[in-house]
Amino acid sequence: MKRMLVTILVLGFQIQLFAADRSHTFPQDLAELGLPYPVTESDFSKKLNSGKRILEQENWNVWGASPIMGEDGKIHVFYSRWRGTHSRWLSHSEIAHAVADTPEGPYTVLGPVLSGRGEGHWDADTIHNPTIQKVGDKYALFFIGNNLANASKYDGHHASTQRIGLALSDSLNGPFKRVSEDPILEVSPNKQDWDSYLTTNPALLQHPNGEFWLYYKAWDKYNDNMRKMGVAIAKDIKGPYIKHPKNPLVNFAQYKKQVEDAYVFIEQDKFYMIMRDMGVIHPHVGLMLDSDDGINWSAPQLGYRTNVDFTNETTIQRMERPQVLMQNGKPTYLFLALMGGKFATSTAFVLKLQ
Predict the structure, then answer these.
(1) Alpha carbon 199 to chain centroid distance?
(2) Could you give the number of structural domains in the chain?
(3) Which tens digits make up the pLDDT trace of 191-248?
(4) What span is annotated as the signal peptide, if there is one (predicted)?
(5) Which of 49, 172, 262, 307 is most buried (most C-beta within 10 Å)?
(6) How wide is the angle at C-alpha 301 spanned by C-alphas 309 and 128, nearest 5°?
């Protein structure tokens, strides 16, 4: 890929980006990447069509958008947003709600849904990375939260207090009420366990057997320092969630790479996991894995290409937090978080599956 180094000024800081010539984007022939293991492109990736940014809001960073079709026939998205620099997601993010007639928008922002509860709560500060699904006659909104003041109880790192929470509502218009004063999924008390440092980035799968499978990311900080993916299973949406004995289920430590931002769905009796790539193929694309049972997962394939491949943009940006709009049991749109945009912050991004 031909690239030139470009320096831009954002909020007083010089940032260097690689501007890509669109005629030399992510290669069609994956062999050109020269990786030491075989890489193929998933059928999911091949079906992705042109995309567009959505929820470009002045003075706001937007991160991700979890979509769902409402009973009103409209597309509802729940997304993270915060003001200021991008790093303020650690302390100032909230979950907001927007609605549109079509997945591509335009969207009308309805306002905040969940915010940090303040001192004394595990989710005192930031509320982030929502994922929404209808469960029976309720709407289940999973999220992550933190309490930065409590980081000193661990190792002082901001991530050490990240946990997963759950709020339920009778309506997409809320109110969403937390099901517990505590996280829905805690860390292991044993530092030798892979998930003893944090639990984050929830992905709910409503299993055909009636169980609720909550896939989650954890940071195996006290062992090989790699982030990995596991699952916890409950009979009731409110829990308790029991961690699977085969965890972690997805682990790229053999490549010295990590997992990030997974979403799991079933199509025609097959399990699929799409996630942001942390360098297994390329750090600006996505990965797709499949499984017959939701426990044993395949080697990763290319899940989605870069933003430059789907837009008229010329700068490859981070494209993360994949969420899938399911309609009639089929994935129809892929929603992502994307750096940049006309306000030089971050936005949501939507891609149609052919």
Answers:
(1) 13
(2) 1
(3) 999 999 999 999 999 999 999 999 999 999 999 999 999 999 999 999 999 999 999 9
(4) 1-19
(5) 307
(6) 75
